[in-house]
Amino acid sequence: MTSTRFDVVGLGNAIVDVLSRADDTFLEEWGIQKDAMSLIEEPRAHALTAAAKNPIITSGGSGANTIAGVASFGGTAAYIGKTANDDLGRQFRAEMASTGVPFATHPLDTGPATARSIIFVNDDGARSMNTFLGASVLFSKDDVDEEVVRSGKILYLEGYLFDKDDAKTAFIHASEIAKASGRLVALTLSDSFCVDRHRDSFLHLVQGHVDILFANEEELLSLYQTRDFDEAISRLQADTAIAAVTRSEKGSVVIGDSDPIVVAAEPVNKVVDTTGAGDQYAAGFLFGYAKGLPLATCARLGHIAAAEVISHFGPRPEVSLAGLALAAGIKA
């Protein structure tokens, strides 16, 4: 069996985020659904980018954000995803490299541009995401670096990548490599719209192929097509070994070998931007789990990371998460 070089290997959509402030009037004028994610085509992506006021442009993508968070905690991590050979693609690669995360997937030389998500943030911190998937979904089985997958303790899969057949094939291929190597597979459901589109496939993965599941409350309710949270938790507990369900200010519910554990959210002075909150929660949890910490401590690390990222603009940590964990008395 190949020895592990990485705590976590992430596989997902490589996306550059364009973040801008906006009010409800702006959202209505542009037909943008508030506090949700919508897929858009390249012309609308260019139009919304032009309409964004004083944008902050930073590398994003749910799985990539999580991997950057793992690195900020002091964990070892690698990333697999697809960019184009363009300015945004080069920015994405440079920013991943700056976090110490290897990212060696060959970029597209022709075809669509690097993916972007134009995110409009309201004063209440709600984020409305408009995502052009571009080059990211042209990810295929051939892009999966088998040696990197084998070298990670945990393979972390981003649900957003499940939308295209080639990417789905790559997703399953990477999972099979990880399982054959005795590694763990973690999945994030990513968004309730993903669950609505791929419910049967996600249920199949959760019930037989996933060791660790991440979801927020709405995604979980959508997965089991119920509005009863306790019922959904009960069904989830029957389907998977380990799961973490986030509930915003209510904290999270963690499922393991015994009764569900409720872990409180970390206090935040002011919510500035909720973009990346779930991604960073997953980062803290995965880092803790890779280091053998108790599930409640893993969840607390997740909440520490989420609290940091929602206190500023942007989906990635601005300060060392390792330092925040140490200040909270958590050593890994």
In short:
Helix content is 40%, strand content 20%. With 332 residues, the chain is an alpha/beta fold. The strands form two sheets. It has an eight-stranded mixed beta sheet, sandwiched between helices. It has a five-stranded mixed beta sheet with strand order 3-7-6-2-4.
Structural commentary:
With 332 residues, the protein is α/β, with parallel strands linked by helices. It has one domain: UDP-N-acetylmuramoyl-L-alanine:D-glutamate ligase (3-Layer(aba) Sandwich), CATH 3.40.1190. The protein is built from twelve helices and 13 strands. Helix 3 crosses helix 10, helix 7 packs across helix 8 and helix 8 packs across helix 9. The model has no long low-confidence stretch (mean pLDDT 93).
